[in-house]
């Protein structure tokens, strides 16, 4: 089973790229972030024509998450993170797909730091810790994935010395990431590529993609039973290089 996460940075504007990628790679389930579309503007018909059922949680201009399933329809189990400090923001969606519970998220950016946006990020992270613990405790096979807006280690960021004050790489944010992982989750990319420099995001500015000046922001966390079934974890870097592409590339895993 191939499961992917992709921050599309505007689903309607990037729809041709998304559909081309879906046709080429044929993931069984996909988690999308940054739809930047209201609920009624989601391109459901185009995705169904491509063979994907979908559920989505939209918001005007910002945020927005969706879960797609190839040849079936995701069975929604939760919309919104419990105890979200700002539930008006569309950042969390959960569904069952092919016997696996898929939890898709778009964690707040948090910049500028310090300030209200950073406080919201840390509050959201705390709410995620609580819910993730309950997911682990349920005994269900769970994939917790999406754009976490965190670079966990120096191998996940180009020129890390420039980022220590940023909300994506601040010490307390990285500590929150490892507190989450230490509940019992497996970071799929690092499980199979422990020492490689791997990026999933390249800024539009300063020719970042061509220079490979990137960040690893998009992650898969797996419950122990799914970690045992992990056979592949990769980034479709070439998608980022297409004209008018998102600043993120799709990331995917395969489970036996």
From TrEMBL:
Where is the site Important for catalytic activity? 218
The protein's site described by Transition state stabilizer is found at 149
Residue intervals passing through the bilayer: none
For whether the record's keyword set contains NADP, the answer is no
Instruction: Copy out the cofactor comment.
Output: Probably binds two magnesium or manganese ions per subunit.
- Report residues binding Mg(2+): 7, 34, 147, 149, 247-248
MF-aspect GO terms: double-stranded DNA 3'-5' DNA exonuclease activity; metal ion binding
Enumerate the active-site residues: 106, 147, 248
Looking up Pfam families in the UniProt record yields: Exo_endo_phos
The answer, when asked if Ribonucleoprotein is one of the entry's keywords, is: no
Q: Where is the Endonuclease/exonuclease/phosphatase domain?
A: 4-248
Q: Which UniProt keywords apply?
A: Hydrolase, Magnesium, Manganese, Metal-binding
Task: Report the Gene3D superfamilies cross-referenced here.
Answer: Endonuclease/exonuclease/phosphatase (3.60.10.10)
Required co-factor(s) are: Mg(2+); Mn(2+)
Which one GO biological process term can you cite for this protein?
DNA repair
Q: Which residue numbers mark the site Interaction with DNA substrate?
A: 248
PANTHER family to which the protein is assigned, alphabetical: EXODEOXYRIBONUCLEASE III
Q: Which NCBIfam families match?
A: exoDNase_III, xth
Regarding protein family, the annotation reads: Belongs to the DNA repair enzymes AP/ExoA family.
**What protein name does the entry list?**
Exodeoxyribonuclease III
List the top taxonomic levels of the source.
Bacteria, Pseudomonadati, Pseudomonadota, Alphaproteobacteria, Sphingomonadales
